[in-house]
Amino acid sequence: MTTYNTNEPLGSASAKVLYDNAQNFDHLSNDRVNETWDDRFGVPRLTWHGMEVKHSEQMDSFENEFNNFLVNSGYQFLGDYEDGPLTFSARNQYTRYEGQYWRLNTETDVPFTTTGTDATSWELDVTHFSLIDGDTLRQEITNGTLPYGEDTIGNIFGRTLKYFGAVGDGETDDTAALLLADEWSISTGRPVYVRAGEYKILNAEIGGHYIFDSGAWIVNETLGATDNILISRNSLKLHGLNARVGCIAWPTSGNYGNALLIGGYYQPADDSGLVSDVEVYDFTIIGTTTAFSGQAMEGLGNIENVKVKRGKCIGQGTGMLFHWGGDVDLSNPHTGTVTYSHHPRNIEVEDVQFLSADGVTPRAIGLYFSACYNVKANNIYGERCPALISAKPGDVYEQVAVARDKGKVHTGIDIRNCHSRLPPDTNSAMIAITGVPDTYRTTETRLSALDPSSPSDINAENITVDLGTAAYTNPMILVRGAKNVKGSFNVVGGKNTVNPWALIDYTVKSKIRVSGSCPGGVSGRGYSSSVSDHAQHCDESVTYSSSMVGFKLQTFTQTGITLQSAVSVGNTSVSVQSTADAIIFYGAMLYSGAAYIGKVTRTTWLTAGVTNTIPVTKSSNAVSSGSAITSYLTSEGLKVTGTISGFMYNIQSTNTWGIDFAVNIERGYRGGILCDGTYCRSAKFSGSYDGVGWEDGAAVNVNIHVTATTVRNVTINGCRFDADETNPTIDNHVLFSTTGHAGVIISENTGTNPSAVAFSIGNSTVAEAYSMQQIFGNHINGIQAPVATATGLYVGGYYRGAVRNNAVPTAGYWNVGDKLDRVTIVAGGQEGWVCSAAGSPGTWVGYGVVASS
């Protein structure tokens, strides 16, 4: 240790510190006894002598490790060359000369005996040896050609597929070699390296670990009707897989025609068919274009914990399907009856692209989930792909699911960050989320997702479709017959598309956001008990047409149904026939004319010309046999939010029922919201309306326009109509085209004056209590209603209001006790009138005298 140990900081120039530094340097350089010496801060430091000792020890350690490595790798040390002559009787024997290790080269036959023990003989003998150095070892590890024993170098690091006899010329059948490699990989837990080449494989069932070079391909372009290339066993790992697949016949079912099959369409009822823990990473699968095609990958039935990440599926026949399985009759796989079913679960598909072979020609489907649960799809990209993602309940839903899967099917579906570029304009939507089973495959009661007992839970977030400049006629986003859907869908391009780019059909208990600038807008039928959120804008440079509607809503109406037996009050089912196959969904309301029968309590499939029974709530009315029945699946409970701007009509709702329009309406070309059709019932309007009606043409320009012939219970409350500045092109803020309304309330709205009256509505002619419109509490300077229209509200069951024309009503249905005041007050004149006999317009008598002071 140093003499003074002043602990002064680094850089100190004091005499004591300089003395200590000189002493430390002397010991560092010249000490031949101590391996360490404490510096002036008390920290032990290696002397030069200590470093030499440590280096020598480390080199000895390296040599011992290398010797042990060679022994464990199957090598046998014969001794130093100088101790010979040595006889080599096997190729795994080696010698040492001047500190380097040597073994026989491949050109020298065994046995071989060295000729001497010195440098002179070595010059002759060295021609028979190969140096065992790091580069040589690495090359032989790569090729899998080192000698092997119980713990060979191949066992430690892996072997190549060619080691097991594979040729890799694309013509020789390498299946047998692959199966040998697989048994080795499974037994050792070590990988098989697939080096550059084309390996022709057929129906190889494997479960080992494989690592592919970029130039290594598994191929078969001549699959028959019951063939696959690879079939997964448990714990299969394919890292870097490259495959090329083609068919010479149509696969008889999804069980065949695959580059990789996981599970099986037919499976036993118990768990013995389980395939799990499969990894397919960093892959490329190319489909060969022929008259026939299969799939890139299909996962069937009882499979779980499957991860598919970072890959490309290119060309025809490279779809990826995850599909239920069970006791499927493989001779009749698509229509045969199933008595039990297994369902794929815990599936992850991430960073996968489904691409056209040439960037122009449409490809087949992308990713398909049929009756799965707990699946994730993230960062999925499609190009010219007609059905990039589908999530469906399959043919069986969960009717015959095994106990493990019961109540879970079609739940936990999580789809995020998907982009489809230029999908083909077909009836196969770019993304399809449905809750309607396809083919009836069980003897159990058939249900849809709308039925309360059916499980359904689906997320589809940040889904984008790029329509480019094409004019599409089919919707590319489809949500149909679904429940508990949380989604966000966006359209890019589509300026030339005037038909809806998204369709939300008979979907409930969901929250869906749509955004983009496509003039075709979004359509919804029977879309109920949900939130529909919007960020839609139409480019105002388009040539407008009546089809350019931002959000087109309608009640899903079904006719052609006839009662086969009379319905009595209190009946809980109806017997009907339909002229066409149809589905009557849970929650639909059945009417015979104006007579309400009841709500459907279970989704029912109708077969044309066959008598079917539909369960309903207790019938409210008696209806005779032979009566025509109409089914209405309304949008009751739908709330519309967000902002819609720039369309011909921003919203068009046909046969409105139970919708809450809490939406911001901007720059509607002709109008804001149009409610047309036969009826408008139980609707609410709020939100803001700005700049609507800039068409300023012959057509009436209105913020809220109700043209339905029958109107009941409509509330317009808290709206802001052009609140910031006067809109010179708007005719009315609200216009009702019919007097057949009852229960209309227009209250607490604010805004600037339109060019005509703010609320254009005539007195109600409906002969019911509380039928007259109520207009009150609005802050809009100017004329709020036509001159003969009463404004006011019901107080204690009686109407209290006023008329601008200071005259007894000549229109509308009035009840006894209703009162109307004059708005022009004259001293000594009459205060107003009271209805003394109900009717249209009823009998009115004057009341009250205005005092002179």
UniProtKB/TrEMBL annotation:
InterPro entries noted in UniProt: Pectin_lyas_fold (IPR012334), Pectin_lyase_fold/virulence (IPR011050)
Domain of life of the native organism: Bacteria
Protein name: Pectate lyase superfamily protein
Organism this protein belongs to: Citrobacter koseri (Citrobacter diversus)
Lineage: Bacteria, Pseudomonadati, Pseudomonadota, Gammaproteobacteria, Enterobacterales
